[in-house]
Amino acid sequence: MANKFHLGWFLNFSSPSWLGQFDGNNDESWIDGEFYVDIVKMMERGKFDFVMFEDSLMVSDVHGGSMATDLKYNMYAPKQDPLPLMAKLGEHTKHIGLIATASTSFYPPFITARMYATLDNLTHGRIGWNVVTSSEDRAAQNFGLDLHYEHDERYEMADEYVEVVKGLWNSWDPGALVRDRETGVFADHTKVHPIDHDGKYYKVRGPLNMMPGPQGQPTLCQAGGSPRGRAFAAKHANTIICSATGVSEMKAYRDDIRARMVEAGRNPDDCKVLFVVSPVLDETDELAQAKAARRAVMTPEGMDVALAHLSALTNVDFTQFDLDAPVPEITTNGHRTTLEAFLRKGGDAGTKTLRELASMPSLNAVPFVGTPATVAQQMQDAMEQVGGDGFLISGALSRQAVAEIVDGLVPELQRRGLARTEYTHATLKDNLLAF
Ligand SMILES: Cc1cc2nc3c(=O)[nH]c(=O)nc-3n(C[C@H](O)[C@H](O)[C@H](O)COP(=O)(O)O)c2cc1C
């Protein structure tokens, strides 16, 4: 009997694909969230564990010192705040988990604790927090800093931040909400406690001015790639989303996280690691291969976007380098793992030119290509080798792309016993723990 795996979808609250022949009115219906209502309902039909909305807090102009590329290709902007969208999605769905990103570097912990507790109540226990430290100097400059905090220190701050937020969520004992009509007591003050946190980075008295939601502590999601980031994720996360390349790297990442969880005194089965993938599906394997080959062709625009992404995430302007020479040694205070993965695409560092690296398609955990039956088998094989726990679907977004997965691939996975056929629990956290 095959082991089931978990499914999530990686999204951002910006425009989905809008220039293709099958993109319909995508670009008109995202601003008020209606596009996302449509597709998240579809994903709930596919019994996805959760959707995860990433976020960033800047318009990037690192690439060539101009916002032109960012805005032309809708890369980091416009992008709306995913938190209010969670309330809207919660109204239109019943079971699927809803994870939104918030940065520990810029939001006060009291606000974060309160926002997610409120959303946990509004969604009846389906909210998750993707805990990120952010990586961009341009974001830091929107919050009073000249440059972003140092990479590992961001995680030191985040550790303390999450302890504060958890403390606030725990500042109401179970049963504190009395609502006793006879005594007229609404909430019992003896069951509500200040946290009096006075640490290196944060000073927060508490208690939270509201009771926690159905999950108590909302589901925590993380994506640390560096050693410090992984340690943080292993300590706190209920689910980890990981961009790894190839089955052996996926397995090594998951094994490392599980070992770190044991070190942190946690049961490794309490955190589900989901790997980023972009399956390419079609009616026959040949058609799917042809589609994948078409997508892999790098246009000049595609190369510009790839390099602009890298510039934004690393705070390094990639237009300064010779396209026809190997990339010189670079250090970054931004996304270290993204930079390393890019440089590693060409094998040993320094063996490929920047143009060659940028022309190679971005790497996926495993390139799943074929009919739903072929891809289901490929997914099963990969999961068996890695040991778990699931996949995070990513890639160009349209109603058509979602339908191919939800109405093509997922039923095939379900027939093979690889994907859930029903939500067995009410909360996101419990559904993640169901298998
Ligand atoms: C699937 C995935 C989603 C991510 N989403 C965000 C996000 O929404 N906002 C953000 O600032 N960083 C995001 N990150 C970056 C991670 O939080 C992390 O910074 C990155 O993986 C590098 O790891 P490190 O911080 O340990 O160096 C994401 C990473 C991955 C792999």
Automatic annotation (TrEMBL):
Pfam families linked: Bac_luciferase (PF00296)
Binding residue positions for FMN: 55, 101, 151, 155, 226
Top-rank taxon, per record: Bacteria
SUPFAM superfamilies in alphabetical order: Bacterial luciferase-like (SSF51679)
Molecular function as annotated in GO: monooxygenase activity; oxidoreductase activity, acting on paired donors, with incorporation or reduction of molecular oxygen
Keyword Oxidoreductase: yes
InterPro entries attached to this UniProt entry: Diverse_substr_monoxygenases, Luciferase-like_dom, Luciferase-like_sf, NTA_MOA
Keywords assigned by UniProt, alphabetized: Flavoprotein, FMN, Monooxygenase, Oxidoreductase
PANTHER family xrefs: ALKANESULFONATE MONOOXYGENASE-RELATED (PTHR30011), C2H2 FINGER DOMAIN TRANSCRIPTION FACTOR (EUROFUNG)-RELATED (PTHR30011:SF16)
Family label: Belongs to the NtaA/SnaA/DszA monooxygenase family.
UniProt name for this protein: FMNH2-dependent monooxygenase
Species of provenance: Cryobacterium arcticum
